[in-house]
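> tool_call: predict_assembly(chains=two)
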Amino acid sequence: MDKPPPLRADSDQPAPPAARGRRPEFTDDPMLDRLYSVTLALVAELAVTRARLDTVERLLARRSVVGAEEIEAYRPADAEEVEARSRLHSEYLERVFREFTPATRGDTPR
Amino acid sequence: MSSDPAWRSWSLVRRNTMEMRQQAGRSLVARQATALRDRAQALNEGAATLQLDPSLPVPRYVSAVDTHLMRGGYTAEQLEGDVSNPANYDAGFFATVGGMAGPWNDAAGRALAAWLQREHPDFQPQRIADLGCGLGHNTLPLRHAFPQAHIVAVDVAAPFLRYGHARARSLGIDDVEFRQQDATATSLPDASCDLVFTTMVLHETSADALPRILAECKRLLRPGGLAIHLEQPPYRRFPPFEQFMRDWDGRWNNEPFWTSLHEMDLTERMARAGFMPGEIFETECRAPALVAADGRAEDFGRSPVWYAVGAWQTADETAAAVG
């Protein structure tokens, strides 16, 4: 009989094998390609962590005891909350991708 | 272009996000693999409407490619009765398209149903075949649109049929048949269908299989029946930059037939399959905007629209499909 699945939404499984087929390299430096992979994966991991943290903070504001199953089953209370969380997420992406955005990136030749 | 930093950055983000989506989807289903298998088995128990065939050879264009970078592709099974890859696909597709296909990922099927009901309101197909149905997400809208119809959904991939059949049952639909067969040669009799369709299938076939699938559609249709294929639009409609951007998946998202398909003239291919040129057409199928609980239409800013190529079977044809 299997154990019930762990009550966490983030990935606590080992990394699965990659898809078959040659993996493209988009820069001239394999180190740089790998740095992109790590960085982008961190973006995702942190995004999930922040979303969960926001959930915990909201719940803590409302009651004094919070169970893991409450975090798993959490649904936003209303459209305003959905919008606020969505806005937080957008602003987070803007900060992380500042170097990709003309308005916020540093002064480089390209 | 390949040395352009903007293109390189965008490609890196695109490739990595697809890999990450697959990783997250795989992790999501891996820890539920046994539970999902058991649920599917319970839903499928004793059903004559799920007909698997372990002896069916899987075409190499399916078995050799991890389409969309999903490890194992359509046919891999981690355990007996496995449904984890289709579960990954079902959950992950929603993320990949940003929910654009709707909560049930079925916008293409709904687009086809809406097009039929609007453009051909007198056409009431009683016998419908969905070739290359995958997990049946685009099959069920046809069942909703034509509740009296008998629908057969065909695919070569056992895990997807298993999952699709269970998914349909869990949604209250227990009379769609899911059969493990090859779309180039089904067991359906000649002229036995009123409507035969594919949704986003042709670009995942091959130069060899495509004409045989189109010919199979010809064989299956009774006079007055319709074959219609929803797909990505052909490149010829777009300026070079747009073509370049749309071709990315063909090169770097494990879609080996993508470029070829988009450069084809599918109307010409339908003619080669034996359809009369005057009965072949190109059109667009648009999914109706979904309506949220408070009555607002949720269009997400842009409606999903599919290019479609189709042909009506005329009444006076006697020849078999042109080989």
